[in-house]
Amino acid sequence: MRRGPKPKSTAQRRLEGNPGKRALNKTEPTPPPLDDDPAFDTPPPELAEPAARAEWTRLAPMLRKCKQITLADRAALLALCIEWAKYLTATAEAAKLGMIVKAPSGYPITNPYLPIANKALQQCARLWPELGLTPSSRSRVKTDGAGPGPAGDNFSEFDEPPALGPPRTH
Predict the structure, then answer these.
(1) For residue range 77-129, what is the model confidence (pLDDT) as tens digits?
(2) Nearest CA to 70 among 38, 30, 34?
(3) C-alpha distance across the termini of the chain, in Å
(4) Mapping DSSP to helix (H, G, I), strand (E, B) and coil, where does residue 22 land?
(5) Is residue 40 part of a domain?
(6) What angle do CA 129, 134, 138 make, to 5 degrees?
(7) What's the domain count of the chain?
(8) Is residue 159 situated within a structural domain?
């Protein structure tokens, strides 16, 4: 039984103006992004497989620079890299042996690496949106994109008074 769409984060609901007017979760945890931690770009020791390490090396710097990842997301990225390595290994073996192989009994059967590859790809497909790695999930991610001002001042936007215009009427 489906439970409906995934809930949006409090930050996302605030950006949208809280259209449902439901109470916002004031205690939702918000881990800080890994802005200045290039050590995060180095693959962790848990990733023994070269393909998993290569995927970490490809994704971690990109996600960190886009401010789409926090230390709390480390396990999701770790799982994604492991599943991607499984997928690559299983598809390489399937390509080498073919789609149909002979069972010990001599009968043709589907290559046992194919279900492994399919399952790993399913896991990747579940993890990609969680990290904002698909076009549709990226369209849902909102960042201010501004960052610090020219002098590195996070509050430079408040230096000039706002322009006053005519009062808004509803």
Answers:
(1) 999 999 999 999 999 999 999 999 999 999 999 999 999 999 999 999 999 98
(2) 34
(3) 43
(4) coil
(5) yes
(6) 85
(7) 1
(8) no
